[in-house]
Amino acid sequence: MIDITDLQAIVIPFVVTTCIFYIEALIHYHMGKYDKVGFEIPPLKENIKIVSIITGFAFLSSGITYLLEMYFSK
Length: 74
Hints:
Elements: H1 6-34, H2 44-72
Helix pairs in contact: 1-2
């Protein structure tokens, strides 16, 4: 069995959530712009906004999940 440290328990879900949500955001961006499902990377300024929002919420999600796991494991 693999032992996961506290840091890994936060970092792994954070990275996975960030990547998956970024892909979803790119699809939504394309849908909003062209009214059809697709995949497009927006201009740098918009891309930075999207990544900032996603990383913020991925961090919150990972942190809350970690705290809930610690609370309910006792």
